[in-house]
# Entry
Amino acid sequence: MPFVCSWKPAALPVLGALLAAAPAGAQPAPRAAIAQVLATQTAAWNRGDIPGFMQGYWQSDSLVFIGQKGLTYGWQPTLAHYRKSYPNAAAMGQLGFSGLRITPLGPDAAEVVGGWHLARPAPLGDVGGHFLLVFRRIQGRWVIVADHTS
# Structure
């Protein structure tokens, strides 16, 4: 059964409290660990930190990002894509996720489907869309290995 939630920056303290309640040294459940990655990405984005946002992605040439402009392979080219597309804080806006559906595909893989929204000032205006993320647990860490965002 998938985990579905609406993600707002105000939910960060609640998620932090839930994760802090886990026994010391315990690995959080996949859904909680993946939700934490998304929360960390949201916080980094909303403070204008694209390299921090990118920490949620697999740092590999095998990472794939699929967007409106086609395929981008590799962590470094994906970072360059984000920097070019969002050159300043106004262009970045404030990120929010909604309707997140986290579905484990096995012990070390999961998919996340949801919506994204950037609240941006005029004249840029708000933008948003939907995404499908493929997460894998690599060396004990959940990371995005494929991102299809529209």
About this structure: The radius of gyration is 15 Å. The chain has a mean pLDDT of 87. Residues 2 and 103 are 5 Å apart (CA to CA).
